Amino acid sequence: MLERRELFPGVIEMNYQARRRLGCCVYLVHSAGEWALIDIGYEDTVDEIIDLIRRMDFPLSACKAILVSHADADHVQGLPKLKTILPAARSLGHKLAAEALAGNDRILTYAEIPAQGISIHLPPMKLDGQIGEGDRVKVGELELVTWHTPGHTESQLAFQVGNLLFSGDNLFRDGCVGNIDAHHGSDIPAFIESLTRIRDSQVEWLLPSHGPAFRKDAKAIQSTIDRLVAYQHMADFGTCAIDWPLLEEWEAELGQKFDPVKAGPQKMLRM
Ligand SMILES: [Zn+2]
C-alpha cells in the first residue's frame, strides 16, 4: 500500500500525494471507510489520480461524491472520464455550474478564449445533483458544509469541515485571487463579500484550488480585500468596476479652460 500523505487527518491532496504538479488541487476527504473528491482537474491526469487512490487502498466503490467547486475546464474536464470509473459517486455542484456544464457554455467555463486562440476539449456533462449555501455532504463521520462564495465566478463553492475550508479559487497563499473577468461572471463586490466572510469565519486553514494550503491570516486577507476595493473604481477592470472617478473629475473640469501648466502630469494611483 502507498503511504497516505495526509495534509490534515482525513484530507489528502493529490498533487502533494504525487509529489508533482498535476494541475488544480484535487482533494480526497475520507472518514469511516467512505471518501469523496473535491474537483478532478484535467482528463489526462484522471488515470494517475485513480491509480494513486487505489494504491492508497481506498475502495473505488466507497467514493460517495465528487464535489465540483465551480465549472472551469481546468477543474472539471476529467469529470466524464472519472464518472465512467466511479459510476456510483454523485457529482454535485452549484446550480449555475450545472447549467454551464450541461449547456456546454464554452466561454463561461474557460474552454474557449477566442481572442487568445485557446480552445480545449470540454464535453457537455450533466451533474448528478445540485448543492448550494448551507447544504451538507456527509462522508463517513465528517460533514462538509457548502458555502456559496461568488466573485471569481457566480457558481463558486467552498466547503467547510471543522476548522478547514476548501476555499476554491477565492484566495491563494500569495494573496492573489481567482481571475477577475467579465466573461466569466466575475463580480468584484460579491468577491469582497466572500473574502470578508472567509476573513471573519472561525476557519483556521484554507485549502485552495491552486497552490499550497495555508493558515488563514485576517490581516493578509484584508490587504487582498483592500486591493479589490480599489479595483472597483479602476478602468483596468472594465465592466467589472462599479465606477471610474476620473470621469467625474473630468466632467467638473470640462467647464474650465484647459491650462497646460495647471493640468500637470499623470497622478500616482493610490490603492
Ligand atoms: Zn481555478
Q: Distance N terminus to C terminus? A: 52 Å
Instruction: Report the radius of gyration as a whole number of Å.
Output: 21 Å
Residues in helices, as a percent range: 25-40%
CATH architecture heading? 4-Layer Sandwich
The strands making up the biggest β-sheet line up spatially as 1-2-3-4-5-6-9
Question: Per DSSP, what share of the residues sits in E-state strands of 2 or more residues?
Answer: 15-25%
Which stretches are poorly predicted, pLDDT < 50 over at least 5 residues?
none
CATH fold label? Metallo-beta-lactamase, Chain A
**Which class best fits the helix and strand makeup?**
alpha/beta
Question: Care to describe what's here?
Answer:
With 271 residues, this protein is of the alpha/beta class. The chain has a single domain (6-252), classed as 4-Layer Sandwich (Metallo-beta-lactamase, Chain A), CATH 3.60.15. It has helices at residues 14-18, 46-55, 73-76, 79-85, 95-102, 188-200, 218-231, 245-254, 260-263, and strands at residues 6-8, 11-13, 27-31, 34-38, 63-67, 90-93, 112-113, 118-119, 129-130, 136-139, 142-148, 157-161, 164-168, 205-208, 214-215. The strands form 3 sheets. The chain has a 7-stranded mixed β-sheet with strand order 1-2-3-4-5-6-9. The protein has a 6-stranded mixed β-sheet with strand order 10-11-12-13-14-15, with no helix packed on it. Strands 7-8 form a two-stranded antiparallel ribbon. Helix 6 runs antiparallel to helix 7 (218-231). The longest helix has 14 residues, at 218-231. It starts with 5 loop residues before the first strand and ends in an 8-residue tail after the last helix. The model has no long low-confidence stretch (mean pLDDT 96). Bound molecules: zinc ion (ZN). Zinc ion is lined by residues 24, 72, 74-75, 169, 178, 209-210.
